Amino acid sequence: MAIATAIAIANADEESLTHPLLTRPLHPSTSNTMSQVAIVGANVCPIESLDYEIVENDPFKQDWRSHGCIQICQYIFMKWTLCFLIGFIVSLVGFFNNLAVENIAGMKFVVTSNMMLANKYLAAFLVFLASNFGLTLFAIVITAFISPEAAGSGIPEVKAYLNGVDAPGIFSLRTLIVKIAGSISAVSSSLLVGKAGPLVHTGACVAAIMGQGGSKKYRLTWRWLRFFKNDRDRRDLVTCGSAAGIAAAFRAPVGGVLFALEEMASWWRSALLWRAFFTAAVVAIVLRALIDVCLRGQCGLFGTGGLIMFDVTSENVTYHLKDVPPVLLLGVIGGIFGSLYNFILEKVLRIYSLINEKGTGYRILLACSISIFTSCLLFGLPWLASCRSCPADATEPCPTIGQSGNYKKFQCSPGHYNDLASLIFNTNDDAIRNLFSKNTDTEFHRSTMLAFFVTCFFLSIFSYGIVVPAGLFVPVIVTGASYGRFVGMLIGSHSNLNHGLFAVLGSASLLGGSMRMTVSLCVIILELTNNLLLLPLIMLVLLVSKTVADAFNGNIYDHIMKLKGFPYLEAHADPYMRQLTVGDVVMGPLQLFHGIEKVSNIVHVLKTTRHNGFPVIDESPSESPVLFGLILRAHLITLLKKKAFLLAPVRAGIDAFKQFSADDFAKKGLGNGDNIEDIELTNEEMEMFIDLHPFTNTSPYTVVETMSLAKALILFRQVGLRHLLVIPKISNRSPVVGILTRHDFMPEHILGLYPLLVNSRWKKLRIRFPHLDKIF
Questions:
Q1: Which Gene Ontology cellular-component terms appear in the entry (predicted)?
Q2: Distance between first and last Cα of the chain
Q3: Domains by residue range for the chain, with CATH
C-alpha cells in the first residue's frame, strides 16, 4: 500500500522536464525511455546534448602538436574579432528594430489620431483594428510557415542551449530573419509583447552563425574560422550574444553582462566575462553614435529611436526613513503579483499548447483572435476615462497631436487630454517614459492607473504564447510601473518620493517577483533611469519581491523551460541522489565496439540505435577485455563516408590515415551533420573492417559504479559532458557497466525507477493554494 501511494505521489507531483507540456507518460518506466523532444519556439522538435569535452584522438593530438605561436595568435585575434562583430551587428539590429517600431506604430497612431480629430471615430477604429490585424497576421504567417522556432521570446531556448541542450533550427539564418521581422511587426501591432527577449535570441543567433567555423555553401572557408568548429567556443560566443541582446534592448551594457551571468550561462569564467563585457561595450558605443543621429531629427516620426528611457528621473532624489515602509510594501506587492503572473501564465501556456497541437490553422486563428480582442479593448477603454484639463505648466504641447507625448487628445475637447489614451496610444517605450516621468504627479487619475494595470497584466499574459516573436521584459516593466504609480498615488504626501519614482520601483518589484533576478535587474534599471541615487531603494525592493515570490513558485523562464520539455541540469543535486550510486540508474543494453570492427556491424548499430557515443574495447584471448576509449557517432559516420576500410582485421599503419585531418572530425555547423542513411556502401565494403583506435577518445571521463549519483551529477554538469562512462569496481567483469547521459540525471527518470525516494526529494518552502489549482 505504501509503495502504491508513493508511486501515485510521484506521478501526481513530478512533471517531466523532457516531455513537452501535456505529453508525459502516465506511468513510471523501468528504463530511461523518456522522449528526447522539446517545444522549440512553436514546434515539437528532437533535441540532443552538446559535447563540451575535448575528443583526444590521434588527429586532434597531431593537430594540437602542430599549433605554433602564429596559430595561437590567430585564435586569440579571431575570438576578439568575432566578439566585436557580434556587438556591432546586434547593436545595428537593436537600433533599427526600435526605429522601425517607432515609425510603423507612430504612423498608425498619427493616422488614427487625425481621424479622431475629424470626428471620424468609426473610421479611426477600423484603421486601428485593420493595421494591428495586418501587422499581427504578417508576424504570424512568417513565424508559422517559415520558422516556428522564432516564436516566443527565445530566452528559454538560449538558456537551455547554454546548459548543454541543442535543438535544430534555433540559431539558423532563417530563424534570425524571422525573429527580427516578426518582432518588429508584433510590437508595432499594439500587442503587449516585448522586444528584449527576441533581441537576446537575435544576439545568440548572430553569435552562433558567426561561430560555425565558416561555410562551404557561401564559400566562407577561411582557415582562421576553423578554430571555432566546437561546442565550447560556440557556447562562449552565444553567451556574449545574449549579453549583447540585453545591452541593445535597454542600452544597458553592464546590465547585459550581468544578465548573461546571472540568468543565462551555466558555465562562467573570468576570460568569458572580459569578452562579454567587451561585446556589450561595443553595443553601447555604436548605439550612442546612432542615437546622436536621431537627436538631430533624422529618424522619422518618433525621432528618439525608442531607446530613450534615459534621464527620465535624473534629479536629486531625497528620501528618509519614513519612505522605507512604502518601498517594502511595493516589494511585497511585486512578489505576490509576480508569482501570480507566473502561475496564470503557466496555465495559459498549457491551454495554448492544446490549441496549437491541432495544427497551423488553429495557431493562426488563436493569434488573430488575440489581436482583434486587444485592438477592441485598447480603443474602447479610453472612452471610459474622463477628460482632464491640460496643466498650465506643461513642458510639452498639450494635447499632443501627431507625435509621442504625455497628453493624448483622443475624444476630448480642445485644451483637454485623455490620460488613459496617453498610455495606450503610445508605444510601450513611450508609455514607460510617461509613467517614469518626474513632475507629473497630477497627470493621471487613480482609476486610470488601476485600469491600465489590470489591462497590461492580463493582456501581456494572453499575448505571450501565440505564434509570434514576443518577449516578457517590457510588458512586465509597463505593468509594474502602472501599479507602482498607483501605490504612489495612494500614499500621496506621506512620502517624499514622486509618482515617477514609485513607477520605477514598481517595475523593479514586478521584475523581481516574476523573473527572480536581482543584481542584473538592479543594474539594468539604474542604466535605464540614469539615477544612481535610486540604488538602495531598488536593491531593497528587488530583494523583498524575490523573497516573497519564491515562497509561491519559481522563475518564469524556468517554468517555461519545464513546460517546453528541456532537460535542464540544475547546479545542485537533490538529497535523494546521495542515497543512490551511478550503478543504480545506468540503463542497458550497452552497445560496444571492438578496436577493429566490421563495417557491417557499425552500420547496423548506427541504424538501429540513436546513441551518440560508443565504448571501444580491446580483447585478447589471454587477458580480460579492457576499455580503450569512446568514439562518437559523428566520427564513425565520417569514417564510413571516407571509406577508411581494411581488408583484414589488423591494426592499420600510420600512412593509412594521412587522408584525415582534425577538421574532418570537427563539429559541423548548424544543421550540417551527416546521417547514416546518406552513406552508400557495397556488399564488398560491408565485409571490410575499420581500425577505430586512432579515432577513439582515449581519455574519456569515467566514474566507478559505486560513486554517488550526486557527485556524478556535479561532475557531469561542471565539466559539460555528454557521456560519462561507468566502469566496474571489480576488474573481472565487462570493462564498461554503462554510459550516463543527461536524461539519466533527470528526476523523473530516477524517481520512476525508485518511487519511494519521492519523499526524500528536496522541496522548496512553497505556499500552496490547492483550491486555486483546481479552478485553473
A1: chloride channel complex; plant-type vacuole membrane
A2: 31
A3: 82-295 (1.10.3080.10), 340-564 (1.10.3080.10), 575-758 (3.10.580.10)
